[in-house]
Design goal:
Pfam families: Uma2. This protein is α+β, with helices and mostly antiparallel strands. It is built from 4 helices and 13 strands. Helix content is about 20%, strand content about 30%.
């Protein structure tokens, strides 16, 4: 493939000048690694989402760390912001629990995922539907609305996610599958909510 003279492979400028369908493989081979926006591929289209707010990033960090400790005790591995390949699609869930370690790899296949977790705020992709279609056994949703975190766990049953457990800040969220994990959702922000200006 040829690019305009001012665009080189490995540059985000490719997003503006490519005139053909994207695949997960294309994105992983042609685009640079970055710590900024989330760049995913869904049905041939690139979806770019800016980095989240401070609360979202704090919750992602806390959730991944705490889940990682619990998962290791069960012989499973938890990571955050993993390149997850599902056919030609590329997703980057906030938290991923895998059946085997993924260290040293740039991406993993969706078939290795036990649980995918998302922190709400991104409405472009219907993630539960996509993850259910890929056969991921568990989906975890964290909602940070009004700085009152809630967590809900869903299990894949007959092609759809069904609720298993849920809790709001101040009440323990208890998960038994795919590994045991307990947390007060309020602890995910790691600080007290700021006082409202009156």
């Amino acid at each position: 493939m040829t690019w305009p003279d001012n665009v080189v492979s490995g540059s985000l400028d490719l997003l503006a000048c490519r005139d053909q369908r994207w695949t997960a493989r294309d994105a992983l081979e042609l685009l640079p690694e970055n710590n900024g926006p989330r760049i995913e591929v869904v049905r041939g289209c690139v979806v770019v989402t800016p980095g989240g707010c401070i609360d979202r990033r704090a919750a992602q960090l806390q959730l991944a760390y705490r889940m990682r400790v619990a998962a290791r005790a069960a012989g499973q591995w938890v990571y955050r912001s993993v390149n997850l390949v599902s056919g030609d699609d590329l997703f980057i869930p906030d938290v991923v629990a895998l059946r085997k370690p993924a260290g040293g790899r740039r991406s993993v296949e969706v078939t290795t995922a036990l649980l995918l977790g998302e922190i709400t705020g991104f409405g472009v992709i219907d993630r539960p539907r996509e993850y259910a279609a890929a056969g991921v056994p568990y989906f975890l949703r964290v909602d940070l609305r009004n700085r009152v975190p809630t967590i809900a766990l869903f299990e894949l049953v007959d092609g759809d996610y069904r609720p298993l457990a849920a809790a709001a800040a101040g009440t323990p969220f208890v998960m038994r599958q795919p590994f045991e994990f307990t947390v007060d959702p309020g602890d995910l922000l790691g600080e007290e909510a700021p006082e409202q200006a009156g």
